[in-house]
Prior knowledge:
Monooxygenase, 3 helices
Amino acid sequence: MSNSxxxxxxxxxxxxxxxxxxxxxxxxxxxxxxxxxLRMYLLFTSGVSAWAVYGFWVQDWPVFWANVVTLxxxxxxxxxxxxxSLRSAGDRQRQGKDR
Amino acid sequence: MSNSxxxxxxxxxxxxxxxxxxxxxxxxxxxxxxxxxLRMYLLFTSGVSAWAVYGFWVQDWPVFWANVVTLxxxxxxxxxxxxxSLRSAGDRQRQGKDR
Lengths: 99, 99
């Protein structure tokens, strides 16, 4: 692989990987998850894990590292969203009992 | 590249790529963008574009296709978030003038 290609790969990795940190910080700070898709974060964290294994397997280090690092903020957002979804499911159930 | 590795790459691609569609559908349907990070979607769409060029360059087709397809829903979410941010910036400016 040429040096320029590897440099572009690492730039791409830096952009997509760093992008999840402002989202995770926002979600952890505001706990505002109404606009966040639970399905997206379930699929995404599974996919990022699979990409990491793939990158390791074919020894594509930009792909490997980008996905290992992305897993952290993605899992943080997923955790908050799952919590909020469970809470609102509980609320709905309680409301149902009241009626 | 072995067939199993390529299969894993395409599985990973299917997961992370498909993940942005439920988010885009949710955002387009509800217009609920308060919990969405503008900075995330700016960095992310730039990064996904860079990954597509990288994948093409090193002829890593799972990386190329995953990112070309991801660009669509990511750009849709970004567009809605940019619109909402411009609108609320306009609102703040008008409120400032009223005082």
